[in-house]
Amino acid sequence: MLGMHKAQHTTNLGTVAVAAFVGGLAGAIVGLVFAPKSGKELRLAIYKKAEDAIEHVEDITSHHAGALKQQGTDLVDKGKELAEDLQTFIQESLKTKKSGYIPINIAKDPLTEESLPPL
């Protein structure tokens, strides 16, 4: 799993979670069917289990929807920030070009963020 992309890991985790949920639900239904109960009690128990399962799925879905919405908001904010940084960089580059100043960095080490001249 070390070489696995995050999206694949999330997809696999989601698949396992759904499979576990479906397996648990199937086991609960089989247990109810073979339990020594009257028809009315059995139908009521199945109805309650179905309601619980639906409520559980709604809770999980709303949780994931909220998380996805937050991730989307974070990505939009990061995109806006990058766009502003790019605009600032372009404006500063144009000012530098107009002034005739060309920054030259003579360094023995490869370029790093710290070795670049300030904008």
Structure characteristics:
119 residues, 0% strand, rod-shaped
Overview of this protein structure:
This protein is mainly α. The chain has one domain. Helix content is 75%, strand content 0%. 0% of the residues are buried. The mean pLDDT is 76.
Q: The biggest beta sheet, please?
A: none
Uncertain spans: none
Q: Count up the domains.
A: 1
- Counted by DSSP, the helix tally is 2
Specify Rg, calculated over alpha carbons. 29 Å
Secondary-structure element order, as H and E? HH
Q: Determine the fraction of residues in helical runs and give it as a percent range.
A: over 70%
Distance between the termini: 41 Å
Broad shape: rod-shaped
Mean pLDDT: 76
The number of distinct β-strands equals 0
Estimated structural class: mainly alpha
Oligomeric form:
single chain
What percent of residues are in strands?
under 5%
List the helices and strands and how they pair.
Layout: H1 6-33, H2 39-99
Helix pairs in contact: 1-2
Provide a concise account of the structure shown.
With 119 residues, the chain is mostly helical. Helix content is 75%, strand content 0%.
